[in-house]
């Protein structure tokens, strides 16, 4: 929506509420730190906690806490060496912990190199894949 964290936080809430007023789930993406398209599956973002909280997360936080988003799509990239869809800090500490997100967290289509058990244990709900990729089976609850 914008590179400005305040502007995004203001714009995302009515968009999410408007979409969800039509009995469909808004899916907010790409959580988080997805700032480039070129080689986006191979990027490993290193940013300190203050920059993360003040620049990169305000729009997602507003979408969840104020907008009530029912779906979040994880980014392809890594954050501090861990894929976003497996990242316990992003998912369990912030998204599902501090912000209280109770909707569906899903991968983007065709995510590669995913450790399905780690992702599931760290809060991922749905893995989307291309038909050519062998889908992993997960038994719940995880061992």
Describe this protein's structure.
The protein has 143 residues and is of the alpha/beta class. It has one domain (5-121). The protein contains 5 helices and 6 strands. The chain has helices at residues 5-20, 49-56, 58-65, 88-98, 116-121, and strands spanning 27-31, 44-45, 71-74, 78-79, 82-83, 104-106. The strands form 2 sheets. A 3-stranded parallel beta sheet has the order 1-3-6, with no helix packed on it. Strand 4 (78-79) and strand 5 form a beta hairpin. Helix 1 (5-20) runs parallel beside helix 3 (58-65). The longest helix is centred in the N-terminal third of the chain and has 16 residues, at 5-20. The radius of gyration is 15 Å and the shape is globular. The termini are far apart. The mean pLDDT is 89.
Give me some keywords for this one.
143 residues; alpha/beta; three-stranded parallel sheet; three-stranded mixed sheet; 6 strands; 34% helix; 13% strand; globular
Please state the overall shape, judged from the principal axes of the Cα atoms: globular
The total count of helices amounts to 5
Helix/strand order? HEEHHEEEHEH
- Compute the number of structural domains: 1
| CA radius of gyration | 15 Å
- What structural category do the secondary elements indicate? alpha/beta
Tell me the strand percentage band: 5-15%
Distance between the termini: 40 Å
Quaternary structure state of the chains depicted: single chain
Q: What's the mean pLDDT score?
A: 89
Number of strands: 6
How is this fold's topology laid out?
Blueprint: H1 5-20, E1 27-31, E2 44-45, H2 49-56, H3 58-65, E3 71-74, E4 78-79, E5 82-83, H4 88-98, E6 104-106, H5 116-121
Parallel strand pairs: 1-3, 2-4, 3-6
Antiparallel strand pairs: 4-5
Helix pairs in contact: 1-3
């Amino acid at each position: 929506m914008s590179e400005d964290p305040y502007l995004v936080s203001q714009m995302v809430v009515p968009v999410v509420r408007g979409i969800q007023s039509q009995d469909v789930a808004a899916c907010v993406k790409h959580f988080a730190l997805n700032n480039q398209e070129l080689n986006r599956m191979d990027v490993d973002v290193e940013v300190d906690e203050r920059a993360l909280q003040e620049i990169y997360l305000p729009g997602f936080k507003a979408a969840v806490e104020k907008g009530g988003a029912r779906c979040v799509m994880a980014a392809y990239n890594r954050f501090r060496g861990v894929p976003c869809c497996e990242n316990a800090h992003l998912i369990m500490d912030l998204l599902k912990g501090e912000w209280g997100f109770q909707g569906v967290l899903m991968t983007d289509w065709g995510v590669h190199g995913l450790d399905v058990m780690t992702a599931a244990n760290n809060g991922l709900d749905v893995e989307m894949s291309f038909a050519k990729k062998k889908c992993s089976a997960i038994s719940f609850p995880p061992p």
